[in-house]
């Protein structure tokens, strides 16, 4: 423990044993297409509605990662999981068949950071041999939940993001593995009074900057101590705000920053505007694209900071602001 | 850690330093009236809508418990919190001013068990000096979210429960205090295919029984090793199912069981039918009624098992079942 600080250093360095990513058709046509474990072209995932489709996505990612890790579900002590839907129904129905005790989490699109951090903390404290962390989103279930019926065909401003259809899952254990989690920086809710739900990158940017700043301060690190600082789904507009904010605080991460929302789609070709978003965005980009670079030793240490915009259609319609939150996780190469 | 088991024993026995409960008018007219810290007769809590009212409830409970514990908010390392509303908006807007890093949780009405267990685990692992756990519900925000407009005045079957307006909060620390948390049993999602949203006690009973059973097995305890086994909001119907289920497994808890949903209202006089429910139900009953008995030494060890029904209006309208979940926490007298 680090007295008076926001971050935790994991002394026993929980390991990521394996990761799996399952995505939809659009993600499978993007720049990371070759890196995902599974691309499903049926947006319904063989089910009858969007919510069940997202549950199927979770189930498939969970089964895939356990298979890749050679871990059976009865060995997994706890599951840390969440999604964007009200009352986490994608998670409830997606993970029930696993029969693993589940800690349901909600951090909007920052959920994968929260899940990985908590899952790692249970390994670090020797309260579990294996834990599973996952987060999902589905374009259509999110549009239905937060925006307009798909049939309405609403115009999207260029500041809007496109919710990723995808689920990323990691199995953590005590030794071996392909990467280690050496710390976490749970984030504060930051509310700057921002109200434009079609520009969530701007709403989340202050929270992302706050968590990154606290991580640097708590661990006494500079940007160059990380090979990459990776945000979840700030998109093009939020990224610029976040980088400027940190620059004003004396930290320049411009040369070593990537945003999962920008990486996952080719915005011009795929018409995704400011980038991808959703819990699944950072989760699948981490599993498919980031982790392999750490495993290969190309990146020795990264700060992974999924970002969340805390709103519901109710709070938005009542005229409330959109607070942001961002949970950071430090991931390092094993060797 | 206990290999292959579902429960965790906290070796460093995190302490509950203080607890606070804030409730609405109806709860303040019930059997526990004299035990709550604050009773607010304005259902809007001075705000403009039900969601903001619930946020105000959270804020007031958090401030009250910190004041009672003599802990300032900057000393609190992490907040574990949740509510019933979509995207946890009661929590986002209710806790933002605390500026404490927050881990958002969703376990339906089992959330206080999840929050207390995780908050205790961070003390036990020496990753925090102080943590805060809270959960809330509000009758009107829940009716709006899950059921009918209040103005519609729908008929409630006798199996239905009444959502408690209340927030319970505890501050945990490493020493001293009024009780200790010695273990947790995170629950599995249990889906028996039950579909009646006006009888959630029955939907949750199997999950409650499963968590209690696992707790007994993992810690090698019998019912008589607990002064009380306390469920969250099974109500009269769910309680009977749960007790029979455990009896069939060889454990008779009938003489030492209480349900917060039954305790919080006088069902006949207050027209609350099967009992109280909501995250706030078990949270305020724990803080106001259970903890003082432990503090006074009347109860030496209790198993506190908040219970949750995992549904949304979407999943219900799509014809889905209502899976249950229950998270158990072992609370013991300090002396």
Give an account of the 3D structure.
Chain A is an alpha/beta fold. Chain A contains ten helices and 16 strands. Chain A has helices at residues 50-69, 89-95, 111-124, 139-146, 200-218, 235-248, 260-264, 267-270, 279-295, 313-317, and strands at residues 8-9, 15-24, 38-40, 78-82, 102-104, 131-137, 162-163, 166-173, 179-185, 228-231, 257-259, 276-277, 301-305, 307-309, 324-326, 328-332. In chain A, strands 1, 2, 3, 4, 5, 6, 8, 9, 10, 11, 13 and 16 form a twelve-stranded mixed β-sheet that branches. In chain A, helix 1 crosses helix 2 (89-95) and helix 5 (200-218) packs parallel to helix 6. The radius of gyration of chain A is 18 Å and the shape is globular. The mean pLDDT of chain A is 96. The interface between A and B is large, with 59 and 59 residues.
Key descriptive features of the protein:
homodimer, 335 residues, alpha/beta, twelve-stranded mixed sheet, globular
**Biggest beta sheet summary of chain A:** 12 strands, mixed
Radius of gyration of chain A: 18 Å
Q: What is the subunit organization of this protein?
A: homodimer
| Shape type of chain A | globular
User: Which class best fits the helix and strand makeup of chain A?
Assistant: alpha/beta
Q: Could you estimate the helical fraction of the residues of chain A in percent?
A: 25-40%
| Overall number of strands of chain A | 16
Give, in order, the helices and strands of chain A.
EEEHEHEHEHEEEHEHEHHEHEEHEE
Mean pLDDT of chain A: 96
Instruction: Measure the end-to-end span of chain A.
Output: 24 Å
Strand content bin of chain A: 15-25%
Number of helices of chain A: 10
């Amino acid at each position: 423990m680090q007295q008076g600080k926001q971050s935790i250093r994991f002394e026993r360095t929980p390991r990521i044993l394996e990761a799996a990513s399952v995505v939809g058709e659009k993600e499978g046509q993007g720049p990371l297409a070759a890196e995902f474990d599974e691309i499903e072209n049926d947006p319904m995932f063989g089910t009858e509605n969007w919510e069940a489709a997202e549950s199927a996505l979770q189930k498939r990612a969970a089964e895939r990662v356990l298979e890749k890790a050679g871990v059976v579900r009865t060995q997994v002590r706890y599951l840390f999981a969440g999604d964007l839907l009200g009352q986490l129904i994608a998670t409830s129905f997606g993970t029930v068949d696993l029969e693993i005790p589940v800690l349901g989490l909600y951090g909007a699109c920052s959920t994968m950071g929260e899940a990985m951090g908590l899952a790692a903390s249970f390994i670090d404290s020797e309260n579990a041999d294996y834990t599973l962390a996952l987060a999902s989103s589905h374009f259509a279930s999110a549009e239905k939940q937060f925006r307009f019926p798909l049939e309405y065909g609403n115009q999207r401003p260029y500041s809007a993001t496109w919710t990723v259809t995808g689920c990323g899952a990691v199995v953590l254990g005590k030794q071996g593995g392909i990467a280690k989690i050496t710390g976490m920086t749970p984030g504060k809710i930051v509310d700057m009074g921002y109200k434009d739900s079609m520009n969530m990158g701007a709403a989340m940017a202050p929270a992302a900057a706050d968590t990154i700043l606290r991580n640097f301060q708590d661990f006494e690190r500079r940007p160059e101590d990380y090979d990459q600082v990776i945000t979840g789904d700030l998109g093009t507009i939020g990224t610029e705000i976040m980088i400027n904010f940190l620059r004003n605080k004396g930290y320049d991460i411009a040369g070593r920053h990537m945003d999962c929302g920008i990486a996952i789609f080719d915005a011009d070709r795929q018409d995704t505007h400011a980038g991808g978003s959703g819990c699944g965005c950072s989760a699948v980009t981490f599993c498919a694209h980031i982790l392999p670079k750490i495993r290969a030793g190309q990146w020795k240490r990264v700060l992974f900071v999924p970002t969340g915009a805390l709103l519901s259609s109710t709070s938005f319609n009542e005229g409330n602001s959109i607070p942001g939150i961002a949970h950071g996780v430090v991931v390092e190469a094993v060797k």
